[in-house]
Amino acid sequence: DVSGLPPSRQPGMAEAAGDAGLGPAAAQEGAELAAVIGATVPTGFEQTAAEEVQEKLGSASRISRDRGKIYFEVPARSLPQVHRLRSVDNLFVVVQEFKDYQFKENKEDALKDLEDLVKKLPWTDPLKVWELNNSLKKKKTKRKKHNLQSPASREKLSDGGEEGGADQNNTNDQEDCAQNPVAVAPTGGQDTENPQGVTSRNGVEEEEDNEQSDVKVEVQASSESGAKAGDGQTGEGQAKVLRFRVTCNRAGDKHSFTSNEAARDFGGAVQEHFQWKADMTNFDVEVLLNIHNNEVVVGIALTEESLHRRNITHFGPTTLRSTLAYGMLRLCDPQPTDIIVDPMCGTGAIPIEGAAEWPYCYHIAGDNSPQAVKRAANNICSLLRKNESKDSSTGLGVPLDIIQWDICNLPLRTGSVDIVVTDMPFGKRIGSKKKNWDLYPACLMEMGRICTPGTGRAVLLTQDKKCFAKALSRVGHIWRRAQTVWVNVGGLHAAVYLLRRTWERAEERRPFW
Prior knowledge:
- This protein has helices at residues 25-29, 46-57, 79-83, 107-120, 124-144, 151-155, 259-274, 322-331, 349-357, 370-390, 433-450, 465-474; strands spanning 34-40, 61-63, 69-75, 90-98, 196-199, 205-208, 215-217, 232-233, 239-240, 243-251, 277-278, 285-292, 295-301, 339-342, 362-367, 400-404, 419-423, 457-462, 479-489, 492-501.
- The protein is of the alpha/beta class.
């Protein structure tokens, strides 16, 4: 069923993609070329992302049944604005989408169907979009040459949304499959079965037989290197054999094949069709094959590394993804002149995102750890440098301050804060679950004291849901729970709570002196 897609994506429109010689002309066609864009977003924040797309691009989004993805259509000339969206992790252009794909029960037949699909897909326009996207990236890298992040700090970041020394290998963020640094599987190599509990929106945990694997399969490149029709063109117009890889993400228990096998066979057909060369690491094109039960989406990646890495250069043990920080901030609907506090800021992901996107609010960040404060300060400096390089004539500051403090004893006047947004300690890598039983109620009391009665709100992320519920029941006179969003943070099921401050006056704290 492809009826929901624009005419350019209907299968009948597929031209023989072998003739898709991609030349510089693609850029000129950007004006009228349309693209269906798929975006991966933090699970639970699909609606937030859809609202941002509507607001900034004027396009309506469709939220996928496969959690953590949205789809929207834009003219290809809007690609730069698409890359500036704050709520999306990874972007891809949809080649074609099948809402109810009928897989054969026999493994060989099912895989043969996937192979045959390659020849029938309407590749031409999506490849033009991919090329246009590349020309934008080239311009951007030229501008950024002088401001490159050091390789060491880039390596330090794991993609689960939490960066973590020894724990790094354990982060398996199911919604960020397409970019996880999973070890490369050799051709026909092992399949990473990864059954995970998926939390449905109403918070009931359902065990799903998920193989949310990101198996990158290298298809054995044939020895012939001769350029054939259908090779891409470099910007200068000389023929060049494009290098590619196929990434398959499969979820559901009704398939007779593994993601590894699907990627291998589909990749073999892609190679045969375009005469591209398979390359796991230095690829030009990443073809995505997303299979979620009977929903199949074929796409071409438009982002090499997740956009959630945009603000942070100095990572701590549990750095929050910028996209999740944006979703949390948006949930509390900041208004101009609001004072927004993150009392446990860690490396500063939330206030930095806040200052970048809500510059008419005043953001205060604090933490009790001197290392965290130092890292956050370094990240703020990086943001300032980035702002300067954008427009050197006006060295604008950011409305953000960072302080070392004690979360239970904040040096802020009672009722002086509009919004508190923070990532509470999960008790896994920082602190402990036992400590949380004392810390959470004390935090909620102190947040209640500094927030304006009646209008104040708090958005708090935690994985320690039991402890949080108990703490909230103890401070029910000052905080009311308004909304809960279930999210996935580095493979952990967590919750984002939106709390509203009651009119009840919080008890005054004893003075410092």
